[in-house]
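Q: what sequence does this backbone want?
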């Protein structure tokens, strides 16, 4: 547990275009990259980030709709 705490405290937060990534977003980006590589193409950071932002916006919209 001590090793885990030391590692987690020293690792910087992963950021894309200045935005911090949470675990779900990081996993989605990795999944997009793996899919691109498995299909024989090169992963595109710009388009991956665009799709992630669109997904976040949809989730936030849905949450707002449920609240109101």
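A:
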């Amino acid at each position: 547990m001590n090793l885990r705490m030391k590692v987690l405290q020293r690792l910087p937060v992963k950021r894309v275009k200045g935005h911090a990534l949470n675990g779900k977003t990081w996993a989605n980006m990795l999944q997009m990259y793996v899919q691109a590589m498995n299909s024989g193409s090169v992963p595109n950071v710009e388009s991956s980030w665009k799709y992630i932002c669109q997904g976040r916006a949809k989730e936030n919209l849905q949450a707002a709709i449920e609240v109101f």
